[in-house]
Automatic annotation (TrEMBL):
This is Helix-turn-helix domain-containing protein. Residues 215-314 form the HTH araC/xylS-type domain. Keywords: DNA-binding, Transcription, Transcription regulation. One of its GO terms (molecular function) is DNA binding. It comes from Pseudomonas juntendi. InterPro entries: AraC-bd_2, AraC_XylS_family_regulators, Homeodomain-like_sf, HTH_AraC, HTH_AraC-typ_CS, Tscrpt_reg_AraC-type_HTH.
Length: 318
């Protein structure tokens, strides 16, 4: 049994959690299991954007509930696209129920009541929630009826997860590209959440056109890879498509154009580190399209798990 001071500490911790959730996601009521002696939680929104913020919520509470009263008080008019990063949960809304495991997603309407149940018997629940403004969703999806609390595990789920992670980590060169990514996310949701989606007789031909555009975009990137000024906007212009469509094309392959450029440069630099063992790492960074040595070292280690110097030493010795 908790002592009085321990109970007060638990109550204060719960209040702090609810306050942070309310601030970033809206009003929710929380319950935790009687067997949970300590509420563990983390709520982070490192890069707030108008209309497209991505929040990470990690916790070991058993239930979070949003009532109709909570919705009316908040008066929020958007959807949440929820990605289960780790752990598992059951997301309920309008009589529907989505059982989410790691990598699964679902759409939740903030203007209506909902209930989230978490299985924290073996691990914490870890979720990313991306705000999608209702007017933007309706503009792109044409006001179709949307299925909420339905588990999304279709062919685009990994692409959606990758884009959400990019937005959360702020691997986006500009607000223009962030907006394009949001549009791409909404477009990719169409076959997963639109209840009255008509069949298209042009699906195969559209897919063929998109594949050609993607190949052309990759060719443009390869040709200008070493130019530090290369951006998704430049690629889109040379391919003859919009920045938004360019993001949609790459998102279907679980990556953003900006990330594809960086990873291509990293692979190029890795080859040069081994092939040109006597060349300074700073020169290799510059020759691979990076203009900032510290940035190059940071993204190189994040991608390969070791610094450029460590990478070169191991490969040269072997």
């Amino acid at each position: 049994m908790f002592t009085s001071s321990a109970s007060q500490a638990m109550s204060s911790n719960i209040d702090s959690f609810i306050h942070k959730i309310t601030e970033l996601c809206g009003r929710y009521q929380m319950q935790h299991s009687a067997s949970t002696k300590t509420l563990q939680w983390s709520v982070e929104q490192p890069h707030a954007r108008e209309g497209s913020s991505c929040t990470r919520v990690i916790n070991n509470c058993s239930l979070m509930r949003r009532s109709d009263t909570d919705s009316r008080i908040d008066d929020h008019d958007y959807y949440f696209l929820v990605l289960q990063v780790a752990g598992s949960s059951v997301m309920e809304q309008d009589g529907a129920q989505a059982v989410l495991n790691s990598g699964d997603l679902t759409l939740i309407d903030s203007s209506r009541s909902s209930c989230f149940r978490f299985d924290v018997s073996s691990s914490l629940s870890d979720q990313l929630s991306l705000i999608l403004q209702r007017n933007q969703v309706e503009k792109i999806l044409g006001g179709q009826q949307l299925a909420v609390a339905r588990a999304i595990r279709g062919p685009y789920s990994s692409g959606l997860a990758a884009v959400m992670n990019e937005l959360y980590l702020n691997h986006i060169p500009s607000e223009e590209h962030a907006s394009a990514l949001i549009d791409a996310v909404i477009s990719m949701l169409r076959p997963e959440v639109c209840l009255d989606l008509p069949c298209s007789s042009h699906g195969d031909s559209l897919r063929s056109v998109n594949e050609k555009l993607l190949r052309k975009a990759k060719a443009v990137i390869e040709k200008q890879l070493l130019d530090p000024s290369l951006t998704p906007s430049i690629v889109a212009d040379q391919v003859g498509t919009s920045v938004r469509n360019l993001h949609r094309l790459f998102a279907k392959h679980n990556i953003t154009p900006a990330r594809y450029i960086i990873e291509s440069r990293l692979l190029k630099s890795a080859d040069r580190l081994v092939e040109k063992g006597d060349l300074a790492i700073s020169n290799i960074a510059l020759d691979s399209g990076f203009i900032d040595l510290s940035h190059f070292s940071r993204v190189f280690k994040a991608y390969f798990g070791e610094t450029p110097r460590e990478f070169r030493k191991k490969r040269v010795l072997s």
